[in-house]
Amino acid sequence: MRGMADPTDLDADALSRAIHARDISCREVMQAYLGRIGRLNPAFNAIVNLAPADVLLRQADERDDELARGHSRGWMHGMPQAIKDTGHALGFPTTLGSRVLAQAQAPVDSLYVSRMKAAGCIVIGKTNMPEFGLGSHTFNDLFGATGNAWDRSRSAGGSSGGAAVALAQRMLPVADGSDFMGSLRNPAAWNNIFGLRPSQGRVPGWPKPDVWVSQLGTDGPMARSVRDLAHLLSIQAGHDPRVPLSIPQGPQSFVQEALPKPAGLRIGWLGDLQGYLPIEDGILSLCEGALGTLAGAGMQVEPVAPGFDADAVWEAWLAWRRALVAPTVAAALAQPGAREQIKPEALWEHDSAARLDASAFMRASQVRSSFHGHMLGLLERFDALALPATQVWPFDLRERWPRAIAGRSMDTYHRWMEVTLYATFAGLPAISVPCGFDAQGRLPMGLQLIGRPGGDAALLQLAAIHEQLMTNVIRHRPPEPERA
């Protein structure tokens, strides 16, 4: 390494430059990351189905040989990458965190995985998630629970919890996740990293059983810096004709050297939707403090009334969610003895969908359409809308889900994640940015910024301004366990 620091200390962009400058070999990078994974992963349980070290080192040697011949595959050349277990990666099972699918080998690479491989990454394994990605708490009966990067006794969030923890604890240089109901944003908030839910259609999902209706979930990037986030989005994004509703742009770069001046940018603060959302103490004030920092730099931050019927949006959301979740669970239930092995929350989603008829779904779609129009109206006034990224602090790892928030009972296993559905339901890009810690300085929290349709680049610019203003918070590293 010619006197270089530990490569796991580098952000991904600096690592990429060091690899391409031949300051460090791909083998040395792989050895460093495998060493860190071996030391820390037993404590956190973030990476699962890790490939054998000799196989990975052989691939790293191949990348070094390519560089010696003057050939680079791209920005991720030689970088270790573990794929969230919702994604297909050839040579690894796609378990979805379910015992029923423990041996389900990937038939092909998911499109975003093939794009990352084409850019040079080496897939080393998968990252842990809740069963079927349901519930923002990473635990399952196949691999167990993933502890928070800052406190292993607390939830990592989810469903991209394994990815967030592996990234925060520097077991990966960047990470991929997916987002349905905050599955990127919630774990990013709880692990003090960045998580971007791209615009609907920005990162095409393929292969999928349905390419027309199933548009609520999307893959996307996670990173410790906005620059790394933009690099990874640039690789993942771009139109594919097999996904007819994918955005007809790309490939393109989302990495920008110059940022706009903060003065003149307008942020609408939705807060708790005028008391509609129950939120634990300290979260709103922390988010408001971060927004105050942006306002101090010249941005216009204005509290704004939501102006939509949040109860109606929630009921419409439930209909869409059930309709889209049920087929995945139904496919697993086709396996003999599956119902006894699948968690009750997944069975509830599946069984509830059986009572959903076409007319009810279309009524929900009309509510969604009206809500989409309303959000567009708000975004004519503001460059971004702001909300907390989550309604609770990271909770006890042994709980399944919070039963109450601020004295209000939660009537479903995912009601406590309601704050994340608005960007999803409107098909808008949203990013979780670190905004500070609890009163004890121990547990992280994130601020959620929602951008205009297709406005991923502008949202990344806003996040980069935030990053510059809150460097001390963002660069604060989580403690490492004394013993794994």
Account of the protein in words:
The protein has 484 residues and is an alpha+beta fold. It contains 14 helices and 13 strands. It has one domain: Amidase signature (AS) domain (Amidase signature (AS) enzymes), CATH 3.90.1300.10. The strands form three sheets. The chain has an eight-stranded mixed β-sheet, with helices on both faces. Strands 1-3-2 form a three-stranded mixed β-sheet. Strands 10-11 form a two-stranded antiparallel sheet. Helix 2 (26-44) packs antiparallel against helix 3, helix 7 (226-236) packs antiparallel against helix 13 and helix 9 (310-333) packs across helix 10 (344-353). The chain starts with 11 loop residues before the first helix and ends in a 10-residue tail after the last helix.
Summarize the structure.
The chain has 484 residues and is α+β, with helices and mostly antiparallel strands.
Structural class: alpha+beta
Number of domains: 1
Q: How would the global form be characterised?
A: globular
CATH fold-level assignment = Amidase signature (AS) enzymes
Identify low-pLDDT runs. none
CATH superfamily: Amidase signature (AS) domain
Main-sheet strand order equals 4-6-5-12-13-9-7-8
Instruction: Tell me what portion of residues adopts beta-strand conformation.
Output: 5-15%
- Mean pLDDT rating: 97
